[in-house]
Amino acid sequence: QFRKKRLRFGRSRIHEWGLFAMEPIAADEMVIEYVGQSVRQVVADMREKRYAQEGIGSSYLFRVDQETIIDATKCGNLARFINHCCT
Fold this sequence. Notes:
The chain is of the alpha+beta class and 87 residues long. The chain contains 1 helix and 5 strands. Helices cover 15% and strands 22% of the residues.
């Protein structure tokens, strides 16, 4: 079991939008599940090109393993806005 962490969505200095932790989070704690469509690499490649042609500045393609990518660009949750920050 896990408790959902308190998060805030807002502008980020790292990459446009970001998701900010409003409480300390340990290295082994669940923060939020990354949600989107599960696609193969070839589909992700096509979508990435199409998103660029459509003027979508940021695509949210998260690699799970060699064959699986989660595309949260058009149907995802706030997890897609998580950026890395050492602080």
